[in-house]
Amino acid sequence: MNSRGLNANVQLRRGRLSLDVTLDVAPGELVVLVGPNGAGKSTLLRAIAGLIPISAGRVELDGDVLDDPAAGRFVDGCRRSIGVVFQDLLLFDHMTVLENVAFGLRSRGAARRDARRAAAQWLVRLGIGELGDLRPPQLSGGQAQRVALGRALAFAPKLLLFDEPFAALDATTRGEVRRDLRAHLATLAAPKIVVSHDPIEAITLADRIVVLEGGSVTQQGTPDDIRSRPRSRYVADLVGINLLRGTLHDGAIALDSGHQITVAGDDHGSTAAVTATLHPRAITLHTARPDGSARNVWLTTVDAIDDEGDRVRVRVGAPVPLAVEITPSACAELRLRPGASVWVSFKATEVAVQPG
Amino acid sequence: MTGPRRRQGSGNAPPLVAIVVGIVGLCAFFVLPLAGLLWRAPWSDVGTVLGDAQARDALRLSLVCSLSATALSVLFGLPIAWLIARVQFWGRGVVRALALLPLVLPPVVGGIALFFAFGRRGLIGQWLDRWFDIQLPFTIWAAIIAETFVAMPFFVITVEGALRGLDTRYEDAAATYGAKRWTVMRRVTLPMIGPSILAGMALTWARALGEFGATITFAGNFPGKTQTLPLAIYLAFENNEPAGIVLSLVLLVISIGVLAAVGSRVLGARARTPALAQ
């Protein structure tokens, strides 16, 4: 057991939820916590932040014991060095942006002038140096997001927690803010936990994905691990989707591999970096070249077949590696086996394109 | 032709009878009494009346007592509102009902109750008298206590509603940023319910200013000592003096001012004032 970073064993009951989670996060590591509603993600964050006590277990940060019911120890939330970015951000509307960011320093006893100077520097680092005198209701979604980040970072916390940080943003801003956040977080030595519902977020941000279902960890690993071997229906649906990165131009995405994928929608002739998602259910497999409305059709080979009981997950290779979900009967009828040739097809309208 | 009429849509408009009865009610209970007051106002006497020593005393006393009552209501009402809005305890419903009882209790009954609590032979009063030689009834303190008793529930109910409506996650957030309880209250909770606090204060002050029944029962009616404006108005009216109407106008103007302030953007836009709905 390492003594740096976060070492948490959280056990508690709240209503119908019975939480029992062991979670270690190394310094600098970013863990994305995913799970269905009611799985206990937010409760876990609240327990780590010290907003609710655990009933058994132990929470330790950089070797300091924060919560240990057996030893009768509980460090109050306001005495833990943990920066939280909350769902809905929860910026203080009655304060200016600068005062929001300075809040953590002021609460920890910094002199007013020092706190304001440090907060102003943070605003500059986050690229919103000119917004200090505004109030949160005057900000755009992306700006508010940065202020919330600044407020959580300003007092140099030893751990960072994000509870669905992008939930309130529209799709366009999301991509931009996510890139931004990734860049900022990469420079921080503190361990980071991000709760998310968004597969792209999970896959692009995470060093490690931890899946929480029904109050306990059901799977964890690198994004690639999790995506190639989703162990539950929930995980397969969440991160088992196909991610396609490339450049959008003239109604088609030029993938980094060079292959073109036709998508729906007008890009007004501009060229932009995009991430597209394509659900495995939306892809059809054929033994002969299909003739129909699907804009994307090509011949490929079966790499692997995973039987998941009521469904079969087929992974196909070049030119575009994809996961395809079909029924066991379809799999039997097509006589699929690794190495077999197969046609894939999917409609342009099934590809969801996001900037970033 | 039914076309244009149909287009107006009559689905959510009240029936004609309701409109007529509503207008009659407005006239009978709001417009006419005000008109009557203004109609009989002895405008030429306004200067004389307001220059009169007894009226000035009553006005001064009213201001002192009602502002003191407002201050006491904030001092005690804030913790009471906090308690019944935020702390889970057995019998909370009873405590809440108790704190709001003066809203529905006839003020004269309140005055009598205060008398038997703080009077010379009262529950507490006898000990105040015996040990500290303090006699509250028929002093300015009695007037302040009576006004506080009657007016504080307006403050409690307004602030309690605001506290209940406040998203406690903001306070959680403040805590994770290192704010201790006191700091959370000072820098987050109170500013966020600030508009409601101001609205509650305005309502409380207006109610205290107009207090009559509890004051006259518990504090008496001594000019210059416990005779507040409403008492002076009543006495003058009984004796058919013009001062009654002039001083009534003074209170009317103040009331309208309070109502305007509570309803205005400064106080009312973000404030919850359930007391107004009472």
Task: Write up what this structure looks like.
With 356 residues, chain A is α+β, with helices and mostly antiparallel strands. Chain A has nine helices and 21 strands. Chain A has a six-stranded mixed sheet with strand order 7-8-9-3-10-11, with helices on both faces. A five-stranded antiparallel sheet of chain A has the order 2-1-4-5-6, with helices on one face. In chain A, strands 14-13-12-15-21 form a five-stranded antiparallel sheet. With 278 residues, chain B is mainly alpha-helical. Chain B has helices at residues 3-8, 16-40, 46-51, 53-86, 92-100, 107-118, 125-132, 140-165, 169-176, 181-192, 194-209, 213-218, 229-238, 243-263, 265-268, 274-277. In chain B, helix 4 (53-86) crosses helix 11, helix 9 (169-176) packs antiparallel against helix 10 and helix 11 (194-209) runs antiparallel to helix 14. Chain B is globular, with a radius of gyration of 23 Å. Mean pLDDT of chain B is 86; it is low at 1-5 and 267-278. Classes of the chains: A alpha+beta (356), B mainly alpha (278).
